[in-house]
Specification:
By secondary structure, the protein is α+β, with helices and mostly antiparallel strands. The protein folds into three domains: about 90 residues, Rossmann fold, CATH 3.40.50.20; about 70 residues, no CATH class; about 140 residues, ATP-grasp fold, B domain (D-amino Acid Aminotransferase, Chain A, domain 1, 2-Layer Sandwich). It contains eleven helices and 15 strands. The strands form three sheets. Strands 10, 11, 12, 13, 14 and 15 form a six-stranded antiparallel β-sheet that branches. Strands 6-5-9-7-8 form a five-stranded antiparallel β-sheet. A four-stranded parallel β-sheet has the order 2-1-3-4, with helices on both faces. A hairpin with a 5-residue loop joins strand 14 and strand 15. The longest helix has 19 residues.
Length: about 350
């Protein structure tokens, strides 16, 4: 079977977070070849007519979608699956609607709140107006917040300075505006959950039902007391940084965490359904000092590099990487059949 691997075009001088999609494309290509398929990589830009022409020329049975951003923003990533759907090409992973929601942390929080899934209170700017998503009663000043990009992933703009302590809502709004000016993208402030961090990957069984993979905890044991315990940009992408080497993940837990792990699994599956996810995803959590779990982010089509968290979760539960790729393709083919009956 011929499979077109779609990925966003990458400049030669692109930073590590943008070049990573090429690493993913190579890993997926190798898995496809081992499954007996013929992979063809297709670099995607905003030249959509060119993409349609290329797909019609290649005539793939399935498009394996690795497009993370277009035109310099993650906000346009839904374009790839939307275009595939429009021309009748089965496309792996999440559809345009799910990507539209998860690429907006504001829309994600709205959906989670509407379905009673716990997520930290957030503060947004709507022009000159301050908007609060979540329980205003949860804000008691002075309070700590984490400044996050609304539409970008990969910990864009997240460094130690992203964790702030504010004495009023006006100070929060000022910090959001400053971050926007610094990075040129919209930001918001999320109530900072100072505690443990967990990632739970979710894989479609191939028939539309989700399998929640083992929980991974990111540990901060060697962080100085005054250093914010976050998985920022450096922890993900700057290989010679303290943060990169000192944020290991672990899958081994004692019996005291049994109830917590069960709760996280249930919340991950609830999040999958609430956001209309498909194919594969990852749900990120913080657990506060009172043991309460909070969904801080949902990643549709998370990184498939062999050294990333999704592949680590597969290895931990004995699912071969190529088997996961097979299931992702099977899920896309099954959905495409339903759409075009």
């Amino acid at each position: 079977m011929l499979v077109a691997i779609l990925h966003n075009a990458v400049a030669e001088d692109a930073p590590a977070d943008e070049r990573d999609v090429l690493v993913q494309a190579e890993a997926v290509s190798e898995a496809l070849r081992s499954l007996g398929h013929e992979p063809v990589t297709v670099s995607v830009t905003l030249d959509l007519e060119g993409l349609v022409h290329r797909l019609r020329e290649v005539r793939p049975a399935v498009a394996f979608n690795l497009v993370e951003a277009l035109g310099g923003t993650d906000r346009l990533s839904p374009v790839a699956p939307l275009l595939c759907s429009a021309i009748g090409v089965a496309c792996t992973g999440n559809d345009a609607d799910a990507l539209h929601v998860t690429n907006s942390k504001h829309l994600t929080k709205q959906r989670l709140t509407a379905t009673a899934i716990p997520t930290p209170t957030a503060v947004y700017l709507r022009g000159d107006r301050i908007a609060i998503e979540g329980k205003t009663s949860a804000l008691s000043f002075p309070a700590r917040f984490l400044l996050k990009a609304v539409h970008e992933h990969a910990s864009f703009g997240m460094d130690d300075g992203a964790v702030i302590t504010a004495s009023s809502i006006d100070e929060v709004a000022s910090a959001i505006s400053d971050r926007h000016r610094q990075f040129g993208k919209p930001f918001f402030a999320e109530a900072f959950i100072d505690g443990r961090e967990f990632n739970l990957s979710v894989l479609d069984r191939g028939d539309g039902t989700p399998e929640v993979l083992p929980a991974a905890e990111i540990t901060f044991e060697t962080f100085p007391a005054d250093k914010p315990r976050i998985v920022g940009y450096a922890a993900k992408w700057v290989s010679d940084s303290f943060e990169y080497s000192e944020t290991p993940r672990r899958f081994d837990f004692g019996p005291e965490d049994k109830h917590l792990l069960e709760e996280l699994r249930e919340l991950a599956e609830q999040t999958w359904h609430a956001l209309g996810l498909a194919g594969y995803a990852r749900v990120d959590f913080r657990v506060d000092e009172q043991g309460r779990s909070w969904v801080i982010e949902a990643n549709a089509n998370p990184c498939l590099s062999l050294d990333a968290g999704f592949a680590a979760a597969l290895a931990n539960c004995g699912i071969a990487y190529k088997e996961a790729i097979r299931r992702i393709i099977a899920a896309a083919s099954a959905r495409n059949g339903k759409y075009h009956q």
